[in-house]
Write a structure and sequence with these properties.
By secondary structure, the protein is α/β, with parallel strands linked by helices. 45% of the residues lie in helices and 16% in strands. The chain has one domain: NAD(P)-binding Rossmann-like Domain (Rossmann fold), CATH 3.40.50.720. Strand 6, helix 5 and strand 7 form a beta-alpha-beta unit. GO terms for molecular function: oxidoreductase activity. Keywords: Oxidoreductase. It holds the Pfam family adh_short.
């Protein structure tokens, strides 16, 4: 049976691939993006199976209005995919205040507000799915990427808690955690913002992304296969709370967690000194 999906950030990258794959298989897509004309070709091809609205996800009032309109026009929406987001590259000192504000507004506050906006609708229809695009960067960090990691670690914490709150209503939530995927994510003019470089950081760990290879063809993850895997999660009868996508994500997160546990265990004796006498 055909499903209806609501997706943010559909102009390019995962959002565009998701929309194309879902429409091709016969589903309906409610696609939101800042420039709706970028979906004109899909609208012409698929007609009323593609519902398009302009949306800047950092505008919370507009977010609520578009969500309400989508449910009113389309009736049931089976799967929400919170996909809109981008990277912000640069050492913390190199970033401007407005870059920090926009990163958190887009990658952290917007997903929270989308979840809040759709919850009454999903509850009223008896449940649904919510997929939040996170990252392996929600479990580990690289220098020069601090604000992106801040947004993704925050998203991980929010949805880990949110999932438990809404599960009794039949709302199933999955954090999608891709590794390094061959999109335009790291390219200037692509989906990342790059802070002006300060000479003092040249050659330092903070310049790793800026000075590294960012050719999408050199990245291990395939964007279309990643989008299809997201769809598979949305279709799953019992989807996981978290889903890694890409072998690199598995290896990187496994190693980061192992190192974190090593550090915790090395400090266990000191940790115990904070206990009350007789505490178990």
């Amino acid at each position: 049976m055909a499903k209806t999906w609501f997706i943010t950030g559909t102009s390019s990258g995962f959002g565009r691939h998701l929309s194309e794959l879902l429409l091709e298989r016969g589903d309906r897509v409610a696609a939101t993006l800042r420039n709706p004309s970028r979906l004109d070709a899909l609208a012409e091809k698929y007609g009323d199976r593609l519902w398009v609205r302009e949306l800047d996800v950092t505008d919370t009032a507009a977010m609520r209005r578009v969500v309400d309109e989508a449910f009113a026009d389309l009736g049931r929406i089976d799967v929400i995919i919170s996909n809109a987001g981008y990277g912000l590259l640069g050492a913390a000192e190199e970033l401007r205040d407005d870059q920090i504000d926009r990163q958190l507004a887009t990658n952290l506050v917007a997903p929270i507000q989308l979840a809040r906006a759709v919850t009454p609708h999903l509850r009223a229809q008896g449940g649904g799915r919510f997929l939040q695009v996170s990252s392996m960067g929600g479990h580990l960090t690289f220098p020069g990427f601090s604000m992106y990691h801040t947004s993704k670690w925050g998203v991980e914490g929010f949805f880990d808690s949110f999932a438990k709150e809404v599960a009794p209503f039949g709302i199933l939530t999955t954090l999608i955690e891709p590794g390094v995927i061959g999109t335009d994510f790291f390219e200037p003019g692509g989906s990342s913002d790059i802070a002006p470089a300060m000479e003092i950081y040249a050659g330092s760990p903070a310049a790793w992304f800026r000075e590294g290879v960012t050719d999408p063809k050199a990245m291990p993850g395939d964007p279309i296969r990643t989008a299809q895997a997201m769809i598979d999660v949305g279709d799953a009868e019992n989807p996981p709370n978290r889903q890694l996508l890409g072998s690199d994500a598995y290896v990187a997160i496994r190693d980061a967690m192992a190192e974190r546990m090593r550090v915790f265990e090395s400090g266990l004796d000191l940790a115990r000194t904070a206990d009350r006498d007789g505490a178990s």
